[in-house]
């Protein structure tokens, strides 16, 4: 997915003084076809709500590399919450890093996403079904499920508050691995200790 890939959008658009809403959107970017809606509000309580569904969704043109939760984060991530750096949990550090960026850009965010395949140009996930929210330093996973290219599958739900200060909360779920590589990727994602 290149940023200059051909695209088309047809939708209903509603402009208001404090926001914009897009509904019944049919979006084609390269070979991705997406049905979506979005509601972006600014002002006193900025927020972005997105709902998207598609067979294959390629977010590389707008968010390259954003699905990578296992590569070691850069030095700027430790400043988001040093407590996560102490745990050695790369996924937790990456999640805290992304949450801080989202809250800086749009305030709060809610995403509902279903895709047979989701890619950011580097990472490819299958059977994605997620409903999540980021608001006031709290991550709420109503549901989050995906299968990695290695065959590792994880399903989670729960809530963690204080992501940039003192994290507290509960995530529940299960994971499965279809082989050695899948098991290795699951173990790599676990916190040390």
Task: Name the features.
193 residues; 4 helices; globular; alpha+beta
Please give a structural write-up:
The protein has 193 residues and is α+β, with helices and mostly antiparallel strands. The chain has helices at residues 75-78, 82-87, 90-106, 180-189; strands at residues 7-16, 19-29, 32-41, 47-58, 108-119, 124-135, 138-148, 153-161, 168-176. The protein is 19% helix and 50% strand. It has a nine-stranded mixed sheet with strand order 1-2-3-4-5-6-7-8-9. The radius of gyration is 17 Å and the shape is globular. The model has no long low-confidence stretch (mean pLDDT 83).
In short:
With 193 residues, the chain is α+β, with helices and mostly antiparallel strands.
Write the layout of secondary structure elements.
Blueprint: E1 7-16, E2 19-29, E3 32-41, E4 47-58, H1 75-78, H2 82-87, H3 90-106, E5 108-119, E6 124-135, E7 138-148, E8 153-161, E9 168-176, H4 180-189
Parallel strand pairs: 4-5
Antiparallel strand pairs: 1-2, 2-3, 3-4, 5-6, 6-7, 7-8, 8-9
**Overall mean confidence score, pLDDT:** 83
Largest sheet: 9 strands, mixed
Low-confidence stretches: none
Q: Please give the oligomerization state of what you see.
A: single chain
Radius of gyration: 17 Å
* Helicity, as a percent range: 10-25%
The succession of helices and strands, N to C, reads EEEEHHHEEEEEH
Outline: globular
Q: What is the end-to-end distance?
A: 38 Å
Widest sheet: strand order?
A: 1-2-3-4-5-6-7-8-9
Number of helices: 4
């Amino acid at each position: 997915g290149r940023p200059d890939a051909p695209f088309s959008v047809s939708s209903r658009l509603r402009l208001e003084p404090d926001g914009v809403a897009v509904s019944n959107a049919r979006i084609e970017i390269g070979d991705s076809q997406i049905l979506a809606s979005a509601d972006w509000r600014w002002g006193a309580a900025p927020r972005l709500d997105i709902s998207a569904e598609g067979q294959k969704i390629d977010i590389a043109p707008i968010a390259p590399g954003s699905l990578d939760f296992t590569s070691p984060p850069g030095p700027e991530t430790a400043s988001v919450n040093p407590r996560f750096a102490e745990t050695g949990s790369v996924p937790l550090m990456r999640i805290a890093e992304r949450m801080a960026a989202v809250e800086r850009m749009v305030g709060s965010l809610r995403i509902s996403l279903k895709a047979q395949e989701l890619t950011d140009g580097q990472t490819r996930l299958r059977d994605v079904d997620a409903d999540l929210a980021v608001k006031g330093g709290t991550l709420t996973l109503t549901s989050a499920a995906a299968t990695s290219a290695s065959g590792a599958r994880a399903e989670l739900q729960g809530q963690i508050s204080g992501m940039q200060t003192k994290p507290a909360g509960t995530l529940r779920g299960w994971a499965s691995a279809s082989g050695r590589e899948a098991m290795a990727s699951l173990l790599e994602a676990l916190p040390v200790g």
